[in-house]
């Protein structure tokens, strides 16, 4: 695999999961104000971006599994870090939104 394509793949991951992370945080802010419909819309859209980033990442795993050498780079390591942190943040935000819903129900 040449360095240019690894760089492009890294940027595709970063772009997609960065957008997903922003949408997840917007969902949390919407839930905080009681707009759970908007929060769900944001989470749905965030998931679409996350899945796209994950597909790009999976394509590299498939190449390596097929015996093609995959170079290491700091940029790719950053892309993987963003992928994993976005997944963690999204999981926590979903739980926080559920807490906001329960808080609103009790008020």
From TrEMBL:
Keyword Chloroplast appears in the UniProt entry: no
Highest taxon above the source species: Bacteria
Cofactor: Mg(2+)
CC cofactor note: Binds 1 Mg(2+) ion per trimer.
InterPro entries hit by this protein: PTS_IIA_lac/cel, PTS_IIA_lac/cel_sf
UniProt keyword Magnesium, yes or no: yes
Transmembrane segments: none
Residue numbers carrying Phosphohistidine: 78
GO molecular function: metal ion binding; transferase activity
Keywords, ordered alphabetically: Magnesium, Metal-binding, Phosphotransferase system, Sugar transport, Transferase, Transport
A Pfam family assignment: PTS_IIA
PROSITE patterns (UniProt xref): PTS_EIIA_TYPE_3
Binding site for Mg(2+): 81
Active-site residue list: 78
GO biological processes: phosphoenolpyruvate-dependent sugar phosphotransferase system
Database matches in PANTHER family: PTS SYSTEM N,N'-DIACETYLCHITOBIOSE-SPECIFIC EIIA COMPONENT
Official protein name in the record: PTS cellobiose transporter subunit IIA
Gene: ptcA
């Amino acid at each position: 695999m040449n360095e240019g394509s690894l760089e492009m793949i890294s940027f595709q991951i970063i772009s997609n999961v960065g957008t997903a992370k922003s949408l997840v945080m917007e969902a949390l802010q919407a839930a905080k104000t009681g707009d759970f419909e908007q929060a769900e819309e944001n989470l749905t859209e965030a998931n679409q971006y996350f899945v796209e980033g994950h597909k790009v990442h999976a394509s590299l795993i498939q190449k390596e599994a097929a015996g093609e050498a995959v170079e290491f780079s700091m940029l790719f390591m950053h892309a993987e870090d963003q992928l994993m942190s976005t997944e963690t943040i999204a999981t926590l935000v979903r739980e926080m939104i559920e807490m906001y819903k329960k808080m609103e129900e009790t008020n």
